[in-house]
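Need a sequence for this fold. Nothing fancy.
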């Protein structure tokens, strides 16, 4: 308790610095989840992808990031176990931020698409076990989160598989693929916008003071989605399509239509990613700020300070703008050959899975969700379409990440104890 009383402001500043570093690492590494498929299909250049991600990552973090933040802050460890030693919880959360952020930046440097969720949860569990003991971890809740790392890739893979199958049946395997693409792609735009709007309006806008009933939220979501679909329909109709392009690459004009849709799904994926993964950076920071503000008292829940969500959003944006290219290349081109139609199916499935999980407060791994979706698209074309070597390396990096976060957090925790003792 004396540490909080004597160094409260310093602790919050250090936590904010390390939280920003963690958000930087998230942007640098998980940008592949939001934008890798768009760049891999050549629907967007890297510069365009970064600009889109800057806008929608920040919007997702600020508007819809609060639910998962509460889970990271209070749901993984038992806060009551630290009631008599809140200083240990504060130092542990700070150690977790630095440990996870350092691991993510290292992984980004080498182009490894690791899970930020694994990093921070492993770090939090690591310091909790060495500071209080295994009883400080809510293993039942932790088990549910670990289970989601298996279930969500499967869900996104199934959604992506059937989404791509629907594209094949409605568009590619028809007598007039181009006209059918013009007809059905606006419907896919409607679906994409609806997924994002429903969760944002229902769960996210309370952060900015807008409270709507369920009925009002559904109607507003449908209205916005119809507007997006109509704008897409007008844009598609106004484009010029050259039949000679199809002789150079089969279905080139159809893929051009899907390239337009990829921009919409890229926005959706960036928003979904920001809404879920910002919690990995600001959940522990929010815990530190609330405990210090309460003079060491640990509450079951706490209000997220106004400056915390924007801090996480800004950190993500800077990270993806400065260090995002290597991981983007790994996911966008390494797992399987992606065209705009395939990339759309993977992105929409991932966005739907991540946003729904974010709305329910479950901190899933965006990396695993996207890889599951890309695998689903690949399997729709046969297992030979998958680069199993790249997939194996990605899975190995996932396995390493959890203990790496824990070990680093434990070491940093002991160092912080010495510094503030």
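Here you go.
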């Amino acid at each position: 308790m004396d540490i909080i009383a004597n160094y409260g402001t310093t602790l919050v500043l250090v936590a904010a610095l390390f939280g920003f570093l963690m958000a930087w690492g998230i942007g640098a590494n998980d940008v592949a989840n939001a934008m890798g498929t768009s760049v891999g299909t050549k629907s967007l250049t890297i510069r365009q992808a970064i600009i889109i991600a800057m806008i929608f990552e920040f919007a997702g973090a600020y508007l819809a990031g609060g639910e998962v933040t509460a889970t990271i802050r209070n749901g993984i460890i038992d806060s009551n176990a630290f009631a008599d030693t809140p200083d240990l919880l504060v130092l542990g959360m700070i150690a977790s931020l630095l440990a996870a952020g350092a691991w993510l930046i290292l992984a980004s440097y080498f182009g490894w698409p690791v899970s930020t969720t694994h990093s921070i949860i492993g770090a939090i569990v690591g310091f909790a076990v060495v500071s209080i003991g295994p009883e400080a971890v809510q293993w039942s809740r932790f088990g549910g989160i670990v289970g989601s790392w298996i279930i969500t890739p499967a869900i996104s893979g199934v959604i992506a598989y059937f989404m791509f199958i629907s594209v094949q049946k409605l568009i590619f395997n028809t007598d007039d693929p181009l006209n059918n693409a013009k007809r059905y792609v606006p419907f896919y735009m409607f679906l994409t916008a609806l997924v994002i709007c429903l969760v944002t309006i229902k769960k996210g806008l309370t952060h900015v003071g807008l409270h709507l009933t369920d009925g009002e939220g559904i109607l507003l979501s449908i209205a916005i989605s119809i507007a997006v679909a109509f704008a897409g329909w007008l844009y598609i109709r106004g484009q010029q399509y050259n039949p000679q392009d199809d002789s150079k690459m089969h279905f080139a004009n159809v893929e051009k239509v899907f390239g337009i849709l990829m921009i919409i799904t890229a926005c959706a994926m960036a928003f979904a990613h920001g809404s879920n993964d910002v919690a990995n950076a600001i959940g522990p920071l929010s815990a530190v700020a609330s405990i210090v503000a309460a003079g060491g008292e640990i509450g079951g829940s706490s209000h997220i300070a106004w400056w915390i969500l924007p801090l996480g959003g800004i950190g993500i944006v800077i990270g993806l703008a400065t260090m995002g290219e290597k991981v983007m290349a790994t996911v966008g081109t390494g797992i399987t050959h992606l065209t705009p139609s395939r990339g759309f199916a993977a992105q929409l499935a991932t966005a739907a899975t991540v946003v729904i999980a974010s709305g329910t407060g479950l901190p899933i791994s965006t990396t695993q969700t996207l890889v599951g979706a890309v695998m689903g698209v690949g399997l729709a074309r046969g297992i030979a379409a998958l680069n199993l070597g790249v997939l194996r390396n990605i899975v190995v990096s996932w396995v390493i990440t959890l203990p790496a976060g824990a070990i680093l957090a434990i070491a940093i925790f002991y160092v912080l104890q010495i510094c503030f003792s």
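For context: The mean pLDDT is 81.
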